[in-house]
Amino acid sequence: MIDDLVLRRQVCFALYAASRAVTDVYRPILDAVGLTYPQYLVLLVLWEHDGDAPTVSALGAELRLDSGTLSPLLKRLEEAGLVLRRRSTRDERRVEVELTDAGRALRRQVEDVPRRIAGATGLSETELVAVRDTLTRVAETIHRQKEQ
């Protein structure tokens, strides 16, 4: 009989341990440019959509963050001069977020971050893509189940 209540058999622990390990690799890299990991994630979305000025709610949906978590991140990024928040001219109820020139310039300083993180994992590109795709599928499946 296999005992399911063994730590090393828990998917949740493997995810937790991997997440902590990867975040530990990110921390000193991002500290060097004055960012936290969550701030980096926000900037990744804004760099991807540069010129579109997504709304706070659209950012939250993409990052799966609620406004109580996202708003302080945006406030700190705005205080650092990396983003601007402003009311939409089309709909005053919506707040749009856009990169400043400093926010755009920061992108060049962190261009090697994905490569450095990938190198730290010791996985091949094929393995990394497989891990990412599997984890994305897990997250999306659980997210869909929660919404039902």
TrEMBL record:
Subcellular location: Cytoplasm
Coiled-coil ranges per UniProt: none
GO molecular function annotations of the record: DNA binding; DNA-binding transcription factor activity
Recorded superkingdom: Bacteria
GO CC field: cytoplasm
Single biological process term from Gene Ontology: response to stress
InterPro entries with a match to the protein in the record: HTH_MarR-typ, MarR/SlyA-like, Transc_reg_Sar_Rot_HTH, WH-like_DNA-bd_sf, WH_DNA-bd_sf
Alphabetized UniProt keyword annotations: Cytoplasm, DNA-binding, Transcription, Transcription regulation
SUPFAM superfamilies, per the entry: Winged helix' DNA-binding domain (SSF46785)
A Pfam family this chain is assigned to: Staph_reg_Sar_Rot
Keyword Glycoprotein: no
UniProt domain HTH marR-type: residue ranges: 8-140
Protein name as annotated: MarR family transcriptional regulator
Source organism: Micromonospora musae
Lineage: Bacteria, Bacillati, Actinomycetota, Actinomycetes, Micromonosporales
